[in-house]
Write a structure and sequence with these properties.
The complex is a heterodimer.
Chain A lengths: L1 H28 L4 H5 L6 H11 L5 H13 L13 H36 L4 H15 L2 H15 L22 H7 L6 H35 L2 H8 L4 H30 L2 H6 L5 H10 L3 H29 L1 H9 L3
Chain B lengths: L9 H17 L41 E4 L5 E3 L1 E6 L14 H6 L4 E3 L7 E3 L2 E6 L5 E6 L13 H12 L14 H4 L5 E8 L2 E6 L6 H4 L3 H5 L4 H6 L16 E7 L3 E6 L13 E6 L3 H10 L4 E4 L3 H5 L5 E16 L9 H9 L3 H8 L4 E2 L23 H10 L6 E7 L8 H13 L3 E7 L2 H8 L12 E8 L3 H7 L6 H4 L1 H9 L6 H17 L3 E14 L2 E2 L12 E2 L2
Parallel strand pairs in B: 3-12, 3-13, 16-17, 16-18
Antiparallel strand pairs in B: 1-2, 4-5, 6-7, 7-9, 8-9, 10-11, 11-12, 13-19, 14-18, 14-19, 15-19, 20-21
Chain lengths: 340, 567
């Protein structure tokens, strides 16, 4: 197991290196001089030269590459052209909001998507099954920005049930400590802000989770149906075990294996794929920031965010592989018998 | 946004570009007026209201309004918390670093733009400004009783420190950022001295006259905004994130939640008694225009700048007032004058005759006006209202194409980007494409991104190249005719093929005599017309949507000291 873990770690590091290298060279294929782009339009030549030196652009390409690797290893992505702040600081500023949103959506997926998928599989062919299959087909196909705007229009504007964007009301003053509203509220002894923050979270989290919920209903249903056809399930039934026990202990438990491994990627997807939801709901997260940076060609941010997202995926991929190997020893076995 | 305001002199050009780049970069978080000064009588000067008479107050508009706080002689109580939505975060409030709408409320320059009249300035931090006859020396007599938001007195020494920080790259407190002080940086060597004569007098000396210096001195965000030295000396680079005590303006910094909102509070020590009326001025970040619209209708915000189809959705809403404020943004077509097709005058003239702008513009927005001539906009000093542009005439267009050697029509590419100001470029380009076909133009539309368009749109005066065969683009002006006319030597390679125009453009930088200047402006406009150097399309001021219960907006193109919320 240790050997497997180390191999996965090495493979992950190699993948990260490839991504980081590709990002370095691709960004240099973009026409234009980064130093000039970062300088104010009326910058004097000395200013541009100073920026060029700071970026290491006056050195040979390979030197630049190694400087870049060294900075990347320190998570130093440079300074945002648009905000004038270090990219990492900007990202850290916004990551808590994105994590809050992703976690909220994730819980909705777990609480809604998986149980419905299970019930749909158990009641295969019923109205419930057909109804949810239809609903999930629609849910997968709905554009998230449209869903978001509809939610705002119906639930925030027409029936005024939820706030219209943001994480808290404008008059809610909360000292930032961690950036997570709930935690900061607890730290500041402002428990009165916890419910409002959750209130603000509901609509964007539902909008973000909706396409995924639809997907997970279908995935869970399919996985459970497949497992229920397995011989050991039939054996359990023939032994006269209660139906509920057969489904939950032998069916769902085994059906969850492939589902759980995919959930890791879902979490990363929710973290990095919320650009449109964050935009529509004025949610001050990373997606919102990256979109604005893309629109203004803020290369350091684009580069930094790309690398971070890639590393996140690589890390999750490695963790999932290791977890899978631990859950399913056959994976380790297959490695052991693999030709040298 | 790709490109914009054209108030450039050769030296200033880069500064304006910088301003515009800031706009392009910052998009909606800077409210466009921030860059512009004003000039001349205006076109639709007072707010043009399109909806009906005031009716009910939007349901939630009062929800964010604090208790009214100021009762003046007329017995009306004024106050409230005003929330304006902007599209992008406000990461920094150092006026020497970035431009945002917040800065216009927090910082003050010697004078400020008149809210409606282009080219008029209202003394702010000065009682008066004296200019020497040769235009080389400006003496600023500072207003007494002005204090920074931390209570420190505003005086000549502090103002000079602020000006030097902004204008001198070698100054130890210069933030090394965008450095908006184009009047100095864009004119290396022209500003030779900034000095405190006594406690209330500042003298600025130039090596040669700058005809639009008045415009610069009214730019709170262009280096002339006074920043409290105690604040920037404590943290030269970072104070803008939480600029407590930094300005002298009617509103002071209170809170910034990154990517969410900035709250400014009324400065009770403000020198103008009774002002501002509002208790709080909040800029809330809402990136999506559809969400901004819902937020306005829901009463969560009181105002936002409208740039797209939201105009049609809000027009006629009894709870919303739509109106326009300076500056002007105009769409026009620029050509490559060395291109084998668009380099031919008859082709450009045919291009003009091929477009029925009245029908296109009328269907796009009720606020835009077909630009009747080119070079300046109506209302600006020196505008030639005796020149009428080439009218819509498809037959004449075909005949001209024939004369140019294209009797069977001609293929032409029209490049554009989607700018957040001016008319909707997509709709405009498609409408033009359809109409021009009738006259023999087979137009290929090429869409590029805003920053590329912005970078390509400006060049040095008399630039030899222009990367597009024809480009649909946009400019903006605060009403400074000199800058605007000069910019036509930079917005394409027209001035390279007409050196006389370039000479005239360059001459405007040093002519301080008004009559002489107007004569040159007249000649330049005649050349632009005769050569069909560009094709003017339509222009509009910034269109804003506000809740009905907001009062005083007619004074609030840039500054909100006279705005209040009626409860």
């Amino acid at each position: 197991m240790l050997r497997f873990g180390l191999k996965r770690l090495a493979s992950g590091l190699l993948t990260a290196l490839v991504v980081v290298t590709a990002t370095f060279f691709l960004i240099r294929l973009v026409p234009g001089d980064p130093a000039t782009a970062m300088a104010p339009p009326n910058a004097r030549i000395e200013q541009i030269e100073r920026i060029r030196q700071n970026l290491g652009l006056d050195r040979p390409l390979w030197d630049q590459y190694f400087i870049y690797l060294e900075r990347t290893a320190r998570l130093d992505f440079g300074t945002s052209i648009r905000t004038g702040q270090p990219v990492l600081a900007d990202l850290i500023d916004r990551i808590p909001a994105s994590v809050e949103l992703a976690v909220g959506a994730f819980f909705l997926i777990l609480l809604i998507g998986l149980p419905i998928g299970i019930v749909a599989a158990v009641r295969r062919g019923s109205r419930f099954d057909y109804g949810w299959r239809l609903a999930s087909s629609i849910g997968v196909g709905l554009p998230v920005f449209w869903v978001g705007l509809m939610f705002l229009w119906i639930f925030a504007y027409l029936i005024d049930l939820f706030p219209l964007g943001g994480r808290l009301g404008l008059d809610a003053r909360l000292e930032r400590t961690t950036g997570f509203v709930v935690i900061d509220a607890l730290l500041a002894g402002r428990s009165d802000l916890i419910l409002p923050s959750l209130h603000h979270l509901v609509l964007p989290a539902v909008a973000l989770a909706l396409p995924s919920i639809a997907f997970w209903i279908r995935l869970m249903r399919g996985s459970l149906l497949e497992v229920m056809r397995e011989e050991y399930v039939r054996t359990a039934r023939s032994k006269g075990l209660p139906r509920r026990q057969v489904i939950m202990r032998h069916g769902v438990r085994n059906a969850l294996n492939p589902v759980v491994t995919t959930l890791g990627f879902e979490m990363v997807g929710l973290l990095t794929g919320a650009i449109l939801v964050e935009t529509v709901f004025a949610w001050p997260g990373v997606g919102n920031y990256v979109l604005a940076s893309l629109q203004s060609r803020d290369y350091p941010v684009v580069q930094g965010a790309t690398i971070l997202i890639a590393i996140l995926y690589v890390a999750v991929n490695s963790i999932v592989d290791i977890a899978q190997a631990r859950l399913d020893p056959r994976i380790l076995d297959s490695m052991a018998v693999a030709p040298a | 946004m790709e490109d914009a305001p054209d108030m450039t002199t050769p030296q200033h050009e880069v500064t304006r570009r910088q301003v515009l780049k800031g706009l392009g970069i910052a998009g909606a978080y800077i409210s466009l007026p921030g860059l512009l000064a004003a000039c001349a009588q205006a076109t639709p000067q007072s707010p043009t209201t399109s909806a009906g008479a005031p009716t009910t107050t939007p349901a939630g508009a009062t929800a964010t309004s604090a208790a009214p706080s100021t009762t003046v002689g007329d017995g009306i109580t004024r106050g409230g918390t005003f929330v304006m939505a902007v599209g992008v975060d406000i990461p920094d409030m150092d006026p020497h670093e970035l431009q945002t709408f917040a800065m216009l409320q927090m910082y003050e320059a010697p004078s400020r733009r008149h809210p409606t009249n282009y080219g008029e300035f209202i003394p702010t931090l000065v009682e008066s400004i004296e200019r020497s006859n040769d235009g080389l020396e400006y003496v600023l007599n500072l207003r007494g009783g002005v204090t920074y938001h931390d209570g420190a007195p505003f005086n000549a020494a502090s103002f000079v420190a602020s000006l030097q920080r902004a204008s001198d790259l070698e100054n130890e407190y210069n933030n090394g950022g965008a450095a908006w002080a184009g009047w100095a940086l864009g004119n290396p060597g022209i500003v030779t001295a900034i000095e405190a004569v006594d406690d209330t007098t500042v003298r600025v000396t130039l090596s040669e006259p700058l005809p639009d210096f008045d415009f610069w001195m009214a730019d709170e965000q262009g280096g002339w905004g006074a920043v409290n030295p105690a604040v920037f000396m404590a943290d030269p680079v970072g104070f803008g994130r939480e600029p407590f005590g930094a300005g002298t303006g009617p509103f002071m910094f209170e809170e910034r939640v990154p990517n969410d909102h900035v709250t400014l509070a009324r400065y009770d020590g403000y020198w103008e008694e009774g002002k501002p009326y509002l208790d709080q001025f909040v800029l809330r970040v809402i990136p999506d225009p559809g969400t901004r619209l819902l937020a306005l209708k829901n009463g969560d915000i009181h105002m936002f700048d409208v740039t797209g189809p939201e105009i049609a959705q809000l027009d006629g809403d009894p709870d919303v007032q739509l109106f326009t404020v300076p500056p002007i943004f105009g769409n026009f077509v620029a050509f490559n004058h060395n291109d084998p097709i668009t380099g031919i005058r008859e082709v450009r003239q045919a291009f003009s005759h091929a477009i029925d702008l009245a029908s296109i513009v009328g269907s796009l927005t009720p606020f835009a006006t077909v630009t009747p001539n080119f070079g300046l906009y109506p209302g600006m000093p020196g505008f030639r209202d005796d020149i009428s542009w080439y009218p819509y005439d498809p037959e004449q267009a075909r005949a001209l194409l024939g004369q140019a050697g294209f009797p069977d029509g001609v293929d032409i590419s029209l490049t554009y980007s989607i700018a957040p100001v001016g008319l909707n470029a997509d709709t405009l380009a498609q409408a033009m494409q359809a109409q021009m076909e009738e006259s023999g133009f087979r137009v290929e539309l090429v869409v590029i991104d805003g920053p590329t368009m912005f970078a390509s749109s400006f060049g040095p005066p008399g630039r030899p190249d222009y990367p597009f065969q024809a480009a649909l683009t946009v400019n903006g002006t605060d009403g400074n005719p000199q800058g605007m006319l000069f910019s036509w030597s930079q917005r394409s390679n027209y001035a390279a093929v007409n050196p006389t125009f370039l000479d005239l453009a360059l001459s405007t930088n040093s002519i301080v005599d008004q009559a002489q200047r107007l004569e040159v402006y007249s000649q330049m406009q005649q050349m632009l017309f005769d050569d069909v150097a560009y094709v003017p399309l339509a222009h509009t001021e910034v269109v804003r949507a506000a809740a009905r219960n907001v009062r005083g907006l007619e004074t609030a193109a840039y500054h909100f000291r006279d705005v209040w919320i009626e409860t």
